[in-house]
Amino acid sequence: MRVLVVEDEPTIAAQLAEALGTAGYVVDLAENGVDGHFQGSDENQPFDAVVLDLGLPRMDGLTVLKKWRAAGRGMPVLILTARDNWHEKVAGIDAGADDYLTKPFHMEELLARVRALIRRAGGHASAELVCGEVVLDTRYSRVTVGGQTLTLTSHEYRVLDYLMHHPGQIVSRSDLIEHIYAQDFDRDSNTVEVFIARLRKKLPEGVIETVRGLGYRLVAP
Ligand code: CA
Fold first, then answer.
1. How far is ligand 1, taken at its centre, from the CA of residue 186, in Å?
2. Which of 58, 97, 113, 119 sits at 20 to 30 Å (Cα–Cα) from 126?
3. One domain for residues 113 and 91
């Protein structure tokens, strides 16, 4: 899952990148509204969620959000607002924000809200994603098969996490590349096949189906 963080305060941006990264997300950072708007507008870089500060240099967060929504960008957006500024929250929600947090916030709460946004965008009500015997708990980035915990590398986890959020759907290799790699990462599509092959060895047979020429599909065997 790929998250864009648009935040101009370096300390908060670094804390967000660190916490989201540890939670298994690929994080892209923008430190002003113009760069944030540009990154979030790129259809080749689809974000699964955006954390958007409203007080930004060069273009304020509310304008960024309005421009995205006017252009049909529908990704979940959580806005960060100043304390006690209730009209900013109202304006943000009216502009198309899906959720908000007031600064200062607890990182755990932000992570929970981001998880919930991504879950709901995929139509999942529960924090646990289930496919047959495979259970992925988004709260702890933990995967079990028949109750046994799986040991996964961060890239294996990201691949499985994306597939578990889109069960029964065909997920192409380029979808996976876009959602599991940072922008500056060497994106070799062969490595996706390597991660899939490793995951298949750890998962029950038949869970990850290959759809010839199109990609992969998660199925409950
Ligand atoms: Ca700010």
1. 31
2. 97
3. yes
